[in-house]
Design brief:
Number of domains: 1
Strand content: over 45%
Low-confidence stretches: none
Largest sheet: 6 strands, antiparallel
Radius of gyration: 13 Å
Number of strands: 6
Structural class: alpha+beta
Length: about 90
């Protein structure tokens, strides 16, 4: 599965789990970074997206894919950030 498709699926899953609506059903590439830390050398690709609470208030979210095998979603809520690690496939 391609990175963008994986990010879209992850954003949709987390939004759905929390009763939120993924707007435009899409994500957009934000950055590609080479993490050079000796203990965790990997490429990290970040996608941004917008979601709605109660269909009205727009908020932003981020999906980070760390190759070879990490996947996380961050939602920016009024109460603070919600961070979820997902199973990378």
């Amino acid at each position: 599965m391609q990175g963008r498709q994986k990010a879209r699926r992850a954003a949709g899953e987390v939004c759905g789990n929390h009763g939120l609506q993924l707007l435009d059903d899409t994500v957009s590439l934000s950055s590609i970074v080479w993490n050079r830390a000796p203990s965790a050398r990997r490429i990290e690709v970040t996608y941004g997206f917008e979601f709605a609470i109660n269909g009205a208030r727009r908020r932003s979210g981020i999906v980070t894919i760390g190759f070879p095998a990490s996947l996380s979603v961050t939602l920016e809520l009024e109460e603070g950030s919600l961070f979820e690690n997902l199973q990378a496939s």
